[in-house]
Write a structure and sequence with these properties.
Elements lengths: L10 E3 L4 H14 L7 H11 L3 E2 L10 E3 L12 E14 L7 E11 L6 H14 L3 H6 L3 H11 L1
Parallel strand pairs: 1-4, 3-5
Antiparallel strand pairs: 2-3, 4-5
Helix pairs in contact: 1-2
Length: 155
């Protein structure tokens, strides 16, 4: 799975809303030619209709909530996972109970140019977050290099 994560696309964000976060990521990913012009609108619409927030307290009280936003293959030019630590918690609706909001501290944005791999990539991210020994360390790291090194070593 680590083949889908590259150092240049590990980020730490100061965004304070989903909209700001998605715009910031769109600008970076578009500049790197990883997504097309449709990406921003499509990821916002998909998140609105199919929320991706995950309540990690069901796994462990020591884990922060995460989100795994993604969109359709037609908006992506590559298949990649984009890890993003959020310096400010951002509200995402719960994937299981969309009426509930969760304060999210970390996202794994999925770019999937191939379409059919979405479920497999999502399952691998969930396995990584729920089964990696010492995963709490990932969420406390404060540099993109350290986040990448942790993922590269453990994913």
């Amino acid at each position: 799975m680590s083949e889908f994560i590259v150092r240049e696309n590990v980020y730490i964000s100061d965004a304070s809303s989903k909209e700001d976060l998605f715009k910031e990521l769109y600008d970076k990913l578009k500049a790197d030619d990883l997504v097309n012009d449709k990406f921003l609108q499509m990821v916002e619409e998909r998140e609105e209709n199919y929320p991706t927030g995950m309540d990690m307290s069901l796994v462990s009280d020591s884990l922060p909530n995460i989100a795994i936003p993604h969109t359709e293959a037609e908006a992506c030019k590559v298949t990649r996972v984009i890890p993003v630590k959020l310096n400010k918690k951002i509200s995402f609706n719960n994937m299981i109970d969309p009426e509930k909001e969760l304060d999210v501290s970390f996202i794994f944005m999925i770019l999937n140019s191939e379409g059919g791999m979405q479920t497999d990539v999502l399952a691998k991210i969930m396995d990584f977050v729920t089964k990696t020994q010492g995963i709490e360390e990932l969420f406390s790291l404060d540099s993109e290099d350290k986040i990448y090194e942790f993922i590269e070593k453990n994913f």
